[in-house]
Amino acid sequence: MTEEVFLAEQFERHRLHLRxxxxxxxxxxxxxxxxxxxxxxxxxxxDADEIENLGGWLTTVVARVCLNVLxxxxxxxxxxxxxxxxxxxxxxxxxxxxxxxxxxxxxLALLVVLETxxxxxxxxxxxxxxxxxxxxxxxxxVDRSPAAARQLASRARRRIRGAPTEPDASLPAQRxxxxxxxxxxxxxDFDALVAVLDPDVVLRxxxxxxxxxxxxxxxxxxxxxxxxxxxxxxxxxPALIDGSPGLLLAPFGRLRLVLRFTVAHGRIAEIxxxxxxxxxxxxxxxxxGDRPASR
Length: 295
Fold this sequence. Notes:
Elements: H1 3-26, H2 29-44, H3 54-76, E1 88-89, H4 96-102, H5 107-114, H6 119-130, H7 135-142, H8 146-160, H9 171-187, H10 190-196, E2 197-205, E3 217-219, H11 221-230, E4 236-241, E5 244-249, E6 257-264, E7 267-274, H12 277-281
Parallel strand pairs: 2-7
Antiparallel strand pairs: 1-4, 2-3, 4-5, 5-6, 6-7
């Protein structure tokens, strides 16, 4: 076995862990994969014999790459709402690779909250609270002392605590609410839409589907219902989005939107919409099969 093959095998042992770290840091499957690939490139150019803890070294590299991505994102969209990439699977469940990524997943709702944190806060919280990395290892990544890194995580924890909406436990019950929402949207029934929405429902959408100057976040049942009526779902196909009920809008077989719903207390509390063509193109939708879209 050559040294290069041996190194590649060692890297593969850590790939899934690195992908989980990167996805939770970035909320983007494509960017997470890019960060993991960058870690492999740096490893292949390094003297592996001098690396005592390969897993820790790779995690540090991925974390630094993600930190740079987050800082660049904040400069480009300082006030923007970034909707994390969804993990899409059929109603029969995710394939083995998706299932591994979704295992002990924080869920899209928390990923959205993580987007409100500063890059250093997010890194400290993700690495310590989600992956158990000690603060003395996190500190050099964010160029702070261990005590300051602890404060970053503590500040992030206070902002996150209680923020994510806890979805209803029953998947069939969630599906029933989502189906009722889209039936009302197709029929143009404003009152029926409002009835399945939480009064404080929030809809988040990426910029690609919005008119110039339109807010990327809508709040309140009436506002969200009006938004839904403006985009009646004529080509909706059910799917699991991050393990929760959702729909794909694919007119004439071309994917246009991915919608993920959070159903709490029998009503829709959150809707997250991804419509950016490049992000949609990166999604693996083969597992959805040939089920026709509903009309």
